[in-house]
Protein 1
Amino acid sequence: MPTETFEFQVEARQLLQLMIHSVYSNKDVFLRELVSNASDALDKLRLAALRDDTLDADVSDLHIELETDQDARTLTVRDNGIGMSYDEVGRLIGTIANSGTAAFLRELREAQDGAGTEGLIGQFGVGFYSGFMVADEVTLLTRRAGERQGTRWTSRGEGTYTLEKVDDAPQGTSVTLHLKPADPDNQLHDYTSVWKIKEIVKRYSDFITWPIRLVGQNGQNGEKGDDGEASAPETLNSMKALWARSREEVSEEEYHELYKHIGHDWREPLETIQLQAEGTFEYQALLFVPSHAPHDLFNQNFRRGLQLYVKRVFIMDDCEELLPPYLRFVKGVVDAQDLSLNVSREILQQDRHIRMMQRRLTKKVLSSVKSMMTDDAERYATFWREFGAVVKEGLITDPDNRDALLAVTSFATTHGDDGTVTLKQYVERMPDGQDDIYYITGESRESIDNSPHMEAFRERGIEVLLLTDPVDEVWVDAVGEFEGKALRSIAKGEIDLGAREDEQSEGEREKQAEDYAGLLGWMREQLSEDVKEVRLSTRLTVSPACLVADSSDLTPALENMYRAMGQEVPRTRRILELNPDHALVKGLNEAYGEREDRSDLSDTAELLYALAVLAEGGRPKDPARFVRLMADRMERTL
Ligand SMILES: Nc1ncnc2c1ncn2[C@@H]1O[C@H](COP(=O)(O)OP(=O)(O)OP(=O)(O)O)[C@@H](O)[C@H]1O
């Protein structure tokens, strides 16, 4: 058969370079990756055979074999699983289909210094390519179950690989690594050594549910029978399904290795959650909260969901029906006893038991977060930093669990030592006379901190929650109140903070309103395109003006969000509030009273409006005109 040579896709080449130059110091993990792929291939074959009894495949002894050869310096990882067709090898092995990995490579390219690369690389399972950390040539021989012809793939990891059709390949896949010379100083061990292989399998792959056997240790002593014949192959792993065992029996490390296998993450999880449901519908679940949010968590096609097993048989990855979208970062396994092995996605969507499982698993995750919050504030803080923005989606979409969600939600705040607060804590420390829970939304903590809306609150020491996630704009309206206290945006509606001792009396205020009535009406006309009302403010102490919305209006951020999603939204005209104690506003009022020709003043009114827009981090409607008017006024001060 002719051998064809192909070039690696750009990203694949890049990843290979990283592997060859080994940015990752712990090279042992290549074996975990290859065993993990082999295990997946066995899962897939068993399922395919269950679903299609005409499939011409041997499923009588599914297993993984590791074969070492000290003389040839090779290590082979072999499975008799699903295998790959010629086309699949080209598609799956020559390219990087996983968009996450491609994005990771871009990130890596952008990271200037080499430091931190290990952290970055840990976000992605590098899979098959990790073989090139320890080998200078890799050969893969595979035949897809049910097909006659096999394929041989070979590469030295440089720019190209070869593909060749072969007639005599066994079912499944074998990956042969032509090992680099051992270099223990650089953690490159001798991977033909039986004890090393045993150690790695025990450490990383013990839970794999298929037997991992050690065969044909060419060149090593002590592994043969008395008569010189090879003894029966030794199974290296215990194959214990961790989720079926009680927590006391399993070490943290074992849980973590399972997480890394199913979560495609090289880091430890933040939290391990176990659930054994007994009764009429039995199932076991082992869930993990990662310690870092994946970079594509907010992408529409983020692959979410748990692995579903039925009576220890792997059924599917990414089973979305088991947890709501706002817990999409949770990884794990659910093994149900009473589902059919033929269960399909369509059936899952309608199954009553699956809905019950979802409810129970959701509650379990939320209660684990609650315990984390009470028992380990630091871990909870990590959780919330990484996943808070996603969890808050549940406040909108899952009214049934709203209370549980609010109990684990925390906010940045203007008060408090550690800077975050729960709604419960906020309400508990609300002073007498304050009826509402105040919050402000914005793009960043900085823009909020300097917002004019905060002035009166800061001056009176009233606590304000600082909400900076896009989802905050939406859930606050959906939730509306907490323990009978309304959630009130300090940038919306009229604010009555009650009288301060040094404040004007009612009479003085009325007089002031009268004094300004002319100016306010005139400004409203001048600015009618942009504002629906101009009034005196109770929330400003330093700034001359700010913009506020009516309680029912969309905020500018929400307006932008809807537009970004392609929805038509009419432009909301807001209310311009003026600070009657500010010299500029006072002066404007006086000039308004004295002058006949107010053309100059209308420019000042426009500028005042633009300043209010700028102060909340917005952008004047016509920046060039704004600059011209501003420069003109500055010039007059010289
Ligand atoms: N032993 C195998 N048998 C059958 N298919 C395999 C085997 N090894 C790899 N593949 C196929 O090649 C694909 C790419 O493998 P690779 O290890 O690069 O990434 P992955 O396993 O999909 O992702 P990750 O490494 O992030 O878990 C796999 O998804 C699988 O379809």
Note: The two ends are 88 Å apart (CA to CA).
Protein 2
Amino acid sequence: MSSGQPLVRVEELQKYFWEQDSILDRLLGAEPVPVRAVDGVSFDIYRGETLGLVGESGCGKSTAGETLLRLQEPTDGHVEFDEHDVYELAGSELTEFRRDAQVVFQDPFSSLDPRMTIGEIVRQPLDVHNVDTVEKRRERVRELLERVGLSADQLDRYPHEFSGGQRQRIGIARALALEPEFLVLDEPTSALDVSVQAQVLNLLDELQAEFDLTYLLISHDLSVIRHICDRVAVMYLGEIVEIGPVEAIFEEPKHPYTEALLESVPRATTDERERDRETISGDVPSPRDPPSGCRFRTRCPKVIPPDDVEIDQEEYRAIMDLRERIERRDISLESVGEDGGFEFVDGAVSETDLPAFVTALKTRVIDRTLAPEHDEVVEEALAELASSNWERAADVLSSRYESVCERRRPELGEESHPAACHLHDDAEESIRR
Ligand SMILES: Nc1ncnc2c1ncn2[C@@H]1O[C@H](COP(=O)(O)OP(=O)(O)OP(=O)(O)O)[C@@H](O)[C@H]1O
């Protein structure tokens, strides 16, 4: 369990990728737009604890883990390991860090070299770091294999001769070879059958107690997180939205994203199964162009309407989604007339067809009945689209419905269980600003 000083301190860590710009972008001389994989995350990992990093695929978990291990160069930010600045390390200090901080990858099939025996695989870090005599290294490999539940007699065999769970044990033995203090476990059980997952997690638990290890466990699987973590950091689109003790995260989640993640976990009871398989609605926005303010607001079921707007959440969501489509110009105006029998000529419909256009378009883009005062504003916006005034249409909606969630980025506080959400801002007043 955790105690005392943090072993790892991550401060405002940022990692952007520029590599994936398309050739077309480059030919057109477009300004490169980075993928903001990790966008200013801060957290501590205390000695002896397991911190879980959880979030949907693509939210930046692996990049955060690799960058804090200095397997990737950071774009900005700081990481301290045992009170040393990781990005300033050089020479023997860097070598020491490379021994003290190890990683176990998800896929035990691709992370082990198929041409090497498992004895060679586990011994490799000892050879690279030139630890002890050859004889002692051999002995250590035998001990390690036994310790992770394999037989030392198997060290001349090749990875393909082992099951997935056994290969992951080999990966763990290799990570432990240099007696590290800290392990990043990147989806260590995701490629394994459920029955084998618990065995590997139990092994990791035992090893942690035996060798005083500190873990950062990266997983999209909340049941894995719950099984083994002391604290949990929840990531969404490159940011940490909530962090806290594992029971608090599971029993009293604060951020609507955490709540949604928990909702999507399949539960054991039959009647709940179907509902619980639902995933969070809406597409994950691109990390090249994340939403302003709170990044989860485009999918959030609790987005905050302006103070003076009385509206139920589903209506508000429908209007916010419509506004987004208008901003992205993601509505085919030309085809609206196909149902109504009128024409869209030179980007506009005639005055006479305007009411029919608005009605036909509304049926397409809003799938619910709106209260009259909101219906009126939406019709006003849609009428702007009758003459392709996209910007004015978006303005009509934003001037009435702009949310604090899009105006201001919520801060993650420093208490023991903070959530970066305006619903948890201290002063009610401040969220309306
Ligand atoms: N080398 C790279 N070049 C460009 N973009 C990258 C690179 N590596 C990751 N990304 C992008 O960064 C974002 C975060 O990826 P990352 O793998 O860290 O997420 P993740 O939460 O670990 O997801 P997963 O569980 O699917 O690996 C994604 O949009 C991904 O496409």
Note: The two ends are 42 Å apart (CA to CA).
